[in-house]
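Write out the 3D structure for:
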Amino acid sequence: MSNSVVYCAAEAAIIAGFAALRFNFRGVGNSSGSFEQGIGEQGDVSSAISWLEATLPDQPLVMIGYSFGAWVGMQVGCNDPRIKGMIGITPPLDIYGFDFLYSNPKPTLLIAGSEDQFCSQKSFIRLAGLLQATSRTMTIDGADHFLSEYVDQVRDLVHEFLQELRFD
């Protein structure tokens, strides 16, 4: 939740006129519970969506996830009609399967670095070729999985994508 990439993505959402909720998965930081291989963490995401929907009932909801959070959050987002768009930042394609995105009709942005240790360019290009027309991929040249020196570019890409979304 305190990661610079997560912070910048939330900041971009706020600048684009969205509310942003950052949270830790179970067992991370001061959160109770323990790691559940992505299964229990999907429940964490669903709970966060329900809280946002109750708190902001008239606002469109967009899922933004970083790394493991992209894998977990986008699985939920694909199947939850309350989520209108998604952003996956450095999806760990070389660790987890993302085939659930193949039939995803929601506007989606995927961002990865050209030097990502967990999302090779080969995997990223392959996934890009299998996505629906509503999805797009962006590569940040020189960036690794942690995007340490590239958070400003991430913020700009997230902001631009959110500005383009229309929920009529």
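Helices lie at 4-15, 39-55, 68-79, 121-130, 151-164.
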